[in-house]
Amino acid sequence: MGKRxxxxxHFMKSTLAGVGGFFFLAxxxxxxGEKVIDKKGxxxxxxxxxxxxxxxxxxxxxxxxxxSDNPNLVRAALDSGIVLLDTAHGYMQGRxxxxxxxxxxxxxxxxxxxxxKVSLPQDRITGLYTEGxxxxxxxxxxxxxxxxxxxxxxxxxxxxGVSRRESALFEPALKALKKAKxxxxxxxxxxxxxxxxxxxxxxxxxxxxxxxxxxxxxxxxKYYAEVRNGIARAAQAGLGIVGMKAIRGGSRQTPxxxxxxxxxxxxxxxxxxxVVPGFTTFDQMDIDLSVMEDLNLSDSEKKxxxxxxxxxxxxCQGCRECLGQCLKGLPIPDLMRAYMxxxxxxxxxxxxxxxxxxxxxxxxxxxxxxxxVKCSVGFxxxxxxxxxxxxxxxxxxxxx
Length: 400
Ligand code: SF4
Ligand code: SF4
Hints:
By secondary structure, this protein is of the alpha/beta class. The chain is built from 14 helices and 14 strands. It has an eight-stranded parallel β-sheet with strand order 7-8-9-10-11-12-13-14. β8, α3 and β9 form a beta-alpha-beta unit. The chain is globular and about 65 Å long. Mean pLDDT is 87; it is low at 1-21. Bound molecules: iron/sulfur cluster (2 copies). One iron/sulfur cluster (SF4) is lined by residues 316-322, 332-333, 336, 375-377, 379, 381.
């Protein structure tokens, strides 16, 4: 049975439940976990899927290292049977890749898979590339990443943070990926998107230049059906699909207490091959790994998800509807992302890097008699902006 047919059949089997057509799919993982023995001799059940045309057979749960600079946690993840570590050139100003480099040093090269990402300078309002976005810049960053990781090659290199079709097709980036692959510096090409995802996914498929797509995908996305359709098309075309922001953008601190259910919701889609939750503690890692014991959503997990999905205004959709509304033309989705880094990820360093990179004026959201922005999920954006913008003033040495 072709993947497209299977996707449609599962779609038809889905049951409408809750607000906004929130639905669940019938499980396609009748064959659940395979038994693996971790380094401590403990038997675990892992579910594996193949990452599209890369042929990489991976456990469905892997590690997004972004928020962790603890080598012991990364080590424990690999020792527990996790195979893929997801990082980026820009995470923690390079320290994230360095931490991974120390952990993988001395391990057999075929025992782990590294995914990293390179971004190019872009206009935060339009999502289009600006001066300095060149093939040479892209390849320079790749070489630095290889050095930090201590590797001759990266398994998957993503063209990072794409929100427009034009950017997905941006020739200098595609040229860089092609050259890196030809030179043996990367095995597979990828693209990441956490804004305007459906457009980017379709462009990535059309380009025929990518092996993997990494996309935000979660039960709180208002337009997740469009993302789902894009993913189905991409998987049908043979691309590997990585789900990110499965737990609503990483919200571990907010009242929602069932991250396992959120991961299962994403993995119930057979076209999602793996997810990379960004756990930062050993307990969180155990919860995430436990998902593989049974991918089926229980009735109580479904209820938890429906309840959470009906709460408005807790997740910036990256829908960009606010962009034309701000009197000062602020890059609001990026500011909301910085807000998420502070309050959900607790990653102040990333939030500060992001806010500083926006080159905002000294006075922000202080000169409007009234905020005209109507956020699609009801955020009071000016309150959040005024809050997060304060991170500019914190000396970097006080930010761990
Ligand atoms: S208050 Fe802030 S977000 Fe609202 S319109 Fe003014 S500058 Fe834009
Ligand atoms: S309108 Fe709201 S949800 Fe959409 S991008 Fe702007 S802040 Fe995010």
